[in-house]
Amino acid sequence: DADIKSIKWDEEGDEQEQSAGYASILGMILSFLTYTFVLSYGAMIMNSVIEEKTNRIVEVIVSSCRPMELMMGKIIGVGLVGLTQFAIWVVLLGIGGFVLSLFGMSAMGNTPDVGAMTAGMQVNAPDQSEISSIISAITSINYTSLLINFVIYFIGGYLLYASLFAGFGSAVDQATDSSQFTMPIILIMIIALYAGIACVENPSGPMAVWCSIIPFTSPVVMMVRLP
User: Fold this and answer.
1) 192-211: string of b/e by CB count within 10 Å (b at 16+)?
2) What gap in Å lies between CA 53 and CA 62, rounded to an integer?
3) Is 42:114 a contact under the CB 8 Å cutoff?
4) How many CA atoms are closer than 13 Å to the CA of 40, on its beta-carbon side?
């Protein structure tokens, strides 16, 4: 068995250890979050449009505003709800990461009790090199750039799919009739998710590059490639 460690240089020329496994796990989590958010909030838009058509509320609303304004307001409003939910998660994860970093620093500072060792008790001190390598691998990723790109790709993917869901919702009169229209969208998202999983082993391969260019798959695949 070969223990391979990735060492990269930063802009200042300093060496920093990077874990491919951690980057892959982080990329898959972000990819799955993008997949879940886009589908759930897009379906929310479609159900809202169908409900307003069924209750004939849209006829009253359109009398005071343009249909384009109504649709954009609905899409942007639900999108802001999704970003607010994601912001809450980021704050909670940031607090959790800060607590874990403090715990790791305190663990690295632990030293064996010399008095206990002379008394015949064996004290197992934590492997500081292993702990430091884990912390270095976690901190090697540029989370600020990753977070900004996640928001950008989420907004782009959400606007694309939410518009499709809204258009399909306006073409049907009942929620039960919408499944035949939404099935192609769900299949495309599933293909994008499996393409992202395949891109973990080769994030610079031809499939990863082409799926990053196609707008229907790029929000999911790029979340795997960026870390």
Assistant:
1) bbebbbebbeebeeeebeeb
2) 11
3) no
4) 10
pTM (2 decimals)?
A: 0.70
Residue partners of 132: CB distance under 8 A and separation at least 6: 108
Residue holding tokens 């790109």? Answer: 149
Task: Give alpha helix (H) positions in the chain.
Answer: 20-54, 57-62, 67-108, 114-118, 128-139, 143-171, 179-198, 206-213, 218-225
Q: How many Cα atoms are found within 13 Å in the side-chain-facing hemisphere of 43?
A: 14
- State pLDDT tens for residues 30-80: 888 888 888 888 888 888 888 888 788 877 888 888 888 888 888 888 888
Among residues 5, 50, 24, 13, which one has the least CA distance to residue 177? 50
* Tokens matching residue 217: 């798959």
Contacts of 101 (CB under 8 A, 6+ apart): 135
Q: Quick one: DSSP state of residue 174?
A: S
